[in-house]
Amino acid sequence: MSGSYNDMRKFFDPSWEVNSGSPGIMNQMGGMFGLNSNPSMGPNGRDDAGFMPIGSMSPTGGSSWFGPNSGLGMNLGTAQLGLSGLGALGSLWGGLQAQGLAKKQFDFTRNTTNTNLANQIKSYNTALTDRALARGKVAGSSDSEVQDYITRNSMSR
Fold first, then answer.
1. pLDDT-derived band of residue 10, with 50, 70 and 90 as boundaries?
2. How is residue 63 annotated by DSSP?
3. pTM for the predicted model, two decimal places
4. DSSP secondary-structure letter at 1?
5. What is the largest distance, in Å, between two alpha-carbon atoms of the chain?
6. Which is nearest to 42 in space by CA: 34, 58, 53?
7. Which pLDDT score, from 0 to 100, does residue 97 have?
8. Does the pLDDT at position 86 exceed 80?
9. DSSP string spanning 69-126?
10. Contact in structure between 54 and 47 (CB atoms under 8 Å)
11. How deeply is 31 buried, as exposed, middle or buried, from its count of CB atoms within 10 A (0-12, 13-18, 19+)?
């Protein structure tokens, strides 16, 4: 039973070392993901060649590639702010373009509707005149009576 305990301890305990003197499995993985410090790292968390482990690339600061001590002159927060500002400007421009398109569409629809209404009024008045003249001839009405009927019943805008 003690063998299985040691096997589990090798995996989960970062301070436990195997017989060869190397750190446990989780310590190696943890150092890779920035969970534990790697004892082979030098000052500022860099190895002998000056590189930082992958897990130490934290955007929150410290000795990372994007933090305030990185020496790059620009950090990830500033870049995100700039990108969100560009996104907002793009959204505003798109909104203005959509508003212009909506105005043109409204004007086109209004003109089409007004043209259709004028044509319907003209068609109705033509049919009314034709009917009134035919009835006036059959009924023997005078031209003034027929014209009075047309004037009273015709449509206008």
1. low
2. S
3. 0.44
4. -
5. 128
6. 53
7. 96
8. yes
9. TSSSS--HHHHHHHHHHHHHHHHHHHHHHHHHHHHHHHHHHHHHHHHHHHHHHHHHHH
10. no
11. buried
The sign of the CA dihedral 76, 79, 85, 88 is negative
- Cα dihedral value 116, 117, 120, 121, nearest 10: -150
- DSSP category for residue 138: H
Domain ranges (residues) in the chain: 96-153
**Spatial distance between the Cα atoms of 11 and 3, rounded to a whole number of angstroms:** 13
**Number of residues that this document lists for the chain:** 157
CA-based R_g, the chain, Å: 43
Query: 63: pLDDT confidence band, cut at 50, 70 and 90?
Result: very low
State the number of CA atoms in the 13 A half-sphere of 155 facing the CB.
13
Q: d(Cα 37, Cα 27) in Å, to the nearest integer?
A: 8
